[in-house]
Specification:
- With about 400 residues, the chain is α+β, with helices and mostly antiparallel strands.
- It has three domains: about 100 residues, Double Stranded RNA Binding Domain; about 100 residues, Tyrosine recombinase, N-terminal domain (DNA polymerase, domain 1, Orthogonal Bundle), CATH 1.10.150; about 200 residues, hpI Integrase, Chain A (Orthogonal Bundle), CATH 1.10.443.
- About 50% of the residues lie in helices and about 10% in strands.
- The protein contains 16 helices and eight strands.
- A five-stranded mixed β-sheet has the order 1-2-3-4-5. Strands 6-7-8 form a three-stranded antiparallel β-sheet.
- Helix 6 runs antiparallel to helix 7, helix 9 packs parallel to helix 13 and helix 14 packs across helix 16.
- It is elongated.
- About 30% of the residues are buried.
Amino acid sequence: MKVKNNRFTDKYLQNLKAPSEQKKAVDIRERSGEGFGITLFPSGKISFIYIYHFGRRKRRMTLGSYPNMTLAEAKNKHREALAILEKEKDPAEEVKKEKFETQNASAIAGLIEEYINIWAKPRKRSWEEDQRILYKDIRSIWGKRKVIDITKRDVVLLLESITKRGAPIAANRTLACIRRMFNFAIERDIATANPCATVKAPAKENRRERFLSSDEINTLWHKLQDAPMSESTKLALKLQLTTAQRKGEIISAEWKDICLISRIWTIPAEKAKNGKSHRVTLSDLAISLINEIKQISETSRWLFPAAQTVKEDTHMTGEAVDHALRRSRNVFSTIENFSPHTLRATAATHMASMRISSEIISRILNHAKRGITEQHYNKYDYDDEKRNALEKWAFRLEEIIAKK
């Protein structure tokens, strides 16, 4: 049954009663022609409604219940729905979608997606690493929990579990990632406090001060053949030590970026940490390693394709390299506290000991340029100087490897 009313007022709604003979819900609509109305139930309950047409179908949308929602509030909801309809969108579906996103954001799983898509992707080149950390150690454990329910104790226990599995540095990275995510949640009014605020990093890090001695380089190079890791991973580590480039740039290298004729490997801007395209000159040793890599990678576009168990066409992950090294601790028992980054630092330190200038080493490492002159005016590529330095380093490296 439908009834029309010229215009609703608070007094009208307050005095509105369902007749005793009413057995079904009755719709009462204003004569405005804009679909605003109420549903009067036999119990006397009143709901505000919006009747409209979308996609050639008649639709109805419940705006709220009276008196929990006032007439003024219902009118505002109705105007919002009209505005959505004018954009050729279904108001009821849009409200459901918004409600779902709001509810989902209050759970950790929803916050993770919001953080990755709204904050990490636009701002971080390494956003995939944040996604990997959050999916692996956060979503799997806290996914269904509400953001506001996560406490400092939860964070501490999580970090302890990561440390106990033999990954203290990974625990540090996880803490940093969770802290960023909760700061993001506070900015978006999803959380009111950061449970990581006073949590200290589980492990002490001295990675950037560490480099391998000549004896350790010799041990690493030869012990790699006994290490429980793939041949691709072994070659990736050797190539990093030879070229002094970042782990992420090594494992994401593509064959189209390497020219064996000019002996240049070009790291595209989107893969370089400082966002600047970088040319790596290739020594004889580097070319030799690349030829070995080609025999393994075969037809893949990547130098280091992901394992065959991975369905998508992608490259080896940094976590896979780190895990392979952790798994090989016993093999490298005489080399303490080293990581893939140590290999980069090792190459730089040994080049410095050979009296190669810090300016050229910095160019090889592709460190961010400082100063207006460097950033805007000096466009020289230093390829000859870099080639000379890396050839010297490769020659020295081969000497170290050859020692018994």
